[in-house]
Design goal:
The complex is a heterodimer of chains A (162) and B (95). Chain A has 162 residues and is α/β, with parallel strands linked by helices. Chain A contains 10 helices and 5 strands. Classes of the chains: A alpha/beta (162), B mainly alpha (95).
Chain lengths: 162, 95
């Protein structure tokens, strides 16, 4: 499976120490600008993402159509990293992992498939790469830093119990 | 630093004076801090209302994305990912 990530989901999965597991079954692609956003300051998530880039588990795509990215920024008022990730996903016809409502609206407008960190957590469980008990703990952590609504968390908890 | 003149309402001046007195700081530094808090509050409100994205928020507040996520968690600001967005996400993961 191949997925393009924007910084929000990459950081959430790094914070919950799920990112390495994700890279074991998913080919993670990010544009250069997302790499720069994630590594902007020293932090645990930055160190982990840097390590995974060095191990080539996270592929950094340097060549992104500048004019397309610029148009997305102008049309939808999103950031350079978000627009670059969306453009990369659109160009490569890949789904996108992102945790921002505004950027998700753009995905919907462009007809792009998308997932959030919670979907990826549930996929890790369904693929047998994470036990339900550990996943429940990771979901608690995601609920705090990902700040998902109560309804989303309750639904995800229910899916974990099934 | 630049100098600007502002017309303030009486209650605004009183607030600056009150803070200046209780924190034993000059009025300029107190006013700057209030402006900074106001800017942060305004940007978080715009994010919460779905007017700006997380990346734009982080840039407006001179924070890294990671720091912006921490700030939102600290203030208890819910994600702008809606339940409908969440359900839409399963179209890929289940498909």
């Amino acid at each position: 499976m191949e997925l393009v990530f924007d910084a929000s989901t990459l950081i959430l999965l790094a914070r919950t120490t799920l990112l390495r597991d994700v890279t074991e079954f998913t080919q993670v692609q990010i544009p250069t600008v997302v790499e720069q956003e994630c590594l902007a300051k020293n932090s645990f998530d930055a160190a982990l993402i840097k390590q995974l880039i060095q191990e080539r588990r996270v592929a950094v795509q340097a060549e992104i159509g500048e004019s397309g990215v610029k148009k997305l920024i102008e049309d939808f008022r999103i950031g350079n990293g978000e627009a670059s990730a969306i453009w990369l996903a659109r160009t490569k016809e890949l789904p996108l992992a992102l945790d921002d409502g505004q950027a998700i609206k753009v995905c919907k407008a462009l007809g792009l498939q998308f997932v959030t960190a919670i979907h990826i957590l549930l996929v890790l469980v369904s693929h047998g790469r994470l036990s339900k008990e550990i996943a429940a703990e990771k979901l608690k952590a995601l609920s705090h830093i990902g700040r998902y609504t109560k309804k989303i968390i309750e639904d995800a908890e229910q899916r974990l119990r099934e | 630093m630049s100098v600007i003149s502002l017309r303030l309402k009486d209650k605004e001046t009183k607030r600056i004076d009150e803070l200046s007195k209780t924190e034993n700081r000059d009025r300029s530094s107190v006013a700057r801090e209030l402006l900074d808090y106001g800017w942060t509050f305004l940007m978080i409100s715009r994010y919460r209302e779905g007017k700006i994205s997380l990346e734009i928020l982080s840039k407006k507040l001179d924070l890294s994305m990671s720091e912006a996520i921490d700030l939102l968690a600290e203030y208890g600001v819910e994600s702008t990912v809606t339940y409908e967005d969440y359900l839409n996400g399963f179209e890929f993961t289940l498909g």
